[in-house]
Amino acid sequence: MIAKRIIPCLDVADGRVKKGVHFVNLTDVGDPVAIAAAYQQQGADELVFLDIAATNQHRQTMAAMVEQVSAQVFMPLTIGGGISSVADMQRILRAGADKTAINSAAVANPQLIRAGAEKFGNQCIVVAIDAAWDEDAQLYRVYTHGGQQATELDAIAWAKRAVELGAGELLVTSMDRDGTKDGFDERLYQALGAAVNVPIIASGGAGKLADFTSVFKNTPVDGALAASVFHYGELTVADVKRALRTEGVVVR
């Protein structure tokens, strides 16, 4: 059985780690390099680093910061934000990332997924999807630009297309649950798991130990990502893994 992954996420803007609710009202959490090093000590399986302001500010992810983070941690590192070309992917991978995450750029140019996968391999291409339930349309709608722009895309259909184009992994955030600590949107991940056959990382809503156990037991996700509960010391990675082992969930 493949071990489930516990993944802290660093949302970065203006060189600092930020956290908000429903993608807004961001507050400062701290220095990304120091926080990354702390998660290394806690035993995190991977680290996701998202430059959440890069796309809206029309600039590239800061490679220098990636180099600093990769010098401090020795676990898989996924970098996203402002990546809009194969050249951007190459720059980030050379700076020390193991995987690149693309969201807005993939929606605008789906062939970027294929181009990246052909050059670097599917395992390096993570398609990030920000989704919120649309009650009128009865679907999970895809949002881009840090959750600020609604698209016409159905998240489940878009996930299938992204995998067909070469995405090796999906990082799917429930905007409805983001920062709420109300638990993961298990309905979303059940639907995704039935639609695609690549690893899925669940993001948005982690608030207590039982949330991690529930999402792993009730959905086919491979990893659970969290920010607030880790950043503010409410839970540690070790706490989560201990609880999961007690419940019979295989972790590293």
TrEMBL record:
<keyword id="KW-0368">Histidine biosynthesis</keyword>
<dbReference type="InterPro" id="IPR013785">
    <property type="entry name" value="Aldolase_TIM"/>
</dbReference>
<keyword id="KW-0028">Amino-acid biosynthesis</keyword>
<feature type="active site">
    <location>
        <position position="130"/>
    </location>
</feature>
<dbReference type="InterPro" id="IPR004651">
    <property type="entry name" value="HisF"/>
</dbReference>
<comment type="subunit">
    <text>Heterodimer of HisH and HisF.</text>
</comment>
<dbReference type="GO" id="GO:0016829">
    <property type="term" value="F:lyase activity"/>
</dbReference>
<comment type="pathway">
    <text>Amino-acid biosynthesis; L-histidine biosynthesis; L-histidine from 5-phospho-alpha-D-ribose 1-diphosphate: step 5/9.</text>
</comment>
<keyword id="KW-0456">Lyase</keyword>
<feature type="active site">
    <location>
        <position position="11"/>
    </location>
</feature>
<dbReference type="InterPro" id="IPR011060">
    <property type="entry name" value="RibuloseP-bd_barrel"/>
</dbReference>
<comment type="function">
    <text>IGPS catalyzes the conversion of PRFAR and glutamine to IGP, AICAR and glutamate. The HisF subunit catalyzes the cyclization activity that produces IGP and AICAR from PRFAR using the ammonia provided by the HisH subunit.</text>
</comment>
<dbReference type="InterPro" id="IPR050064">
    <property type="entry name" value="IGPS_HisA/HisF"/>
</dbReference>
<protein>
    <recommendedName>
        <fullName>Imidazole glycerol phosphate synthase subunit HisF</fullName>
        <ecNumber>4.3.2.10</ecNumber>
    </recommendedName>
</protein>
<keyword id="KW-0963">Cytoplasm</keyword>
<dbReference type="InterPro" id="IPR006062">
    <property type="entry name" value="His_biosynth"/>
</dbReference>
<dbReference type="Pfam" id="PF00977">
    <property type="entry name" value="His_biosynth"/>
</dbReference>
<comment type="similarity">
    <text>Belongs to the HisA/HisF family.</text>
</comment>
